[in-house]
Amino acid sequence: MFLQGNETVLHVAKTLVLTTNNFLHT
Questions:
Q1: What is the distance between the alpha carbons of residues 4 and 11, in angstroms, rounded to a whole number?
Q2: Start-end of H helices in the chain
Q3: Cα–Cα distance between 4 and 20 in angstroms, integer?
Q4: What does the CA dihedral 15, 21, 25, 26 come to, rounded to 10 degrees?
Q5: Phi and psi at residue 11, to the nearest 5°
């Protein structure tokens, strides 16, 4: 349960970073 939640947080954080990078580069 903890690992699954941690993976979800990491996935969300990764998506946010990618979105921020795309926004800054545009």
A1: 11
A2: 2-25
A3: 24
A4: 30
A5: -60, -45
Q: What DSSP state is assigned to residue 19?
A: H
pLDDT tens for each residue of 1-26: 566 778 999 999 999 999 999 998 77
pTM score of the predicted model: 0.58
CA distances from 22 to 7, 10, 17, 25, 26 (A): 22, 18, 9, 5, 6
Residue with tokens 């580069």: 25
What pLDDT is attached to residue 1?
A: 54
